[in-house]
Amino acid sequence: KHAFFRVCNSATFSRPVRAIQVCQSAKISNPSPPMTKDPHNQHHQQLGHHHYDNNNYYNGKNPPTEMPTAPHIDDLGGNVTKPTLVFNCQLAHGSPTGFITGFASVKELYQKISECYDFSMDEILFCTLNSHKVDMSNLLGGQIGLNDFIFAHKKGRPKEVEIVKSEDALGLTITDNGAGYAFIKRIKSGSVIDRIPHIQVGDHIEKLDGVNVVGKRHYEVARMLKDIPTGSTFTIRLVEPMKSGFQGIAPRNKGGAKQTKQGYGSGKETLRFKSNGNAAIEDEHDDATQCGIDAINSLLDSFMGINDTELATQIWDLGSNKTNSMDFAEAIDASDLEAFGFTDDFIIELWGAITDARQGRHKR
Fold this sequence. Notes:
This is Putative rgs-gaip. With 364 residues, the chain is α+β, with helices and mostly antiparallel strands. It has helices at residues 106-117, 218-227, 287-304, 309-319, 325-333, 344-358; strands spanning 5-7, 45-47, 50-52, 57-58, 86-91, 98-101, 124-129, 143-145, 150-164, 172-176, 182-187, 204-208, 211-212, 233-241, 269-273, 279-283. Helix 3 crosses helix 4 (309-319). The protein is globular and about 50 Å long.
């Protein structure tokens, strides 16, 4: 046995955040299809003893003379393009459907969701698209389809596991939520971590040997794990996503075609988050581009132990109009990707993935 398992009492979060648009719905235990009611309807809706309008909330007793409103994202400063789109959203463990709009980054999206459901933004671990399950093939990354349904996964139970690093590689692929939380995206079959049943895909890595890693990027956490000497023992503190009674979790090492619910995510355009803070509506990637991005992401997994579609897309964009590896390397050095310290050999591997995709040698 390489590990023992200790469950800790979960922390509570009490900082209130004003709710925004929540549609009329009965309490549910499983996610429901998108509501068809117009989110811009200005009439009050009654839900039990509480009343809602488009941007305000009160409990029905002694309503204030001036209704409080959540701050619009435009009031937060910055000269950022924010498409006026409305997305359906639910909490993955069950909730009424909310309508989310006015965001141009993942952090702003989380803020809007937390305002809609009246809890702290720090409670969101990650979001999935068109599935309420902890399914990494549906993880929200750097883009959202215009018809995608968003499911937000909140923090659940914390746990600590003591691990003996009996092999050089632990078998983890790590990604992050774009707002400071690194979590496990994939567990390699037969690896050190795979032999510990208490560690699951979707678990947020909060501490390593007592060192708080909240706020660190996925590659920094992956490097810390890689630097732990083989044969040593370390403790990892994790926070699992909140689960409802029979909520399913996708396999640790999922293969096969990606599946989505009929009626969700059928649009051909996506809202893509840019690294400069802007968001833009773009057509879906063609097959060659998507194959190239997937190949780059596989290289990031193999060389760095991370999975990041947004980073892979940025690398693809830098190489898409280059004619040789030297120009590609110079483009990386001139971008914010220089901080990763990619080796010359790794850049050549990346360039090979780009040229293979251009010439149709990658198959989806």
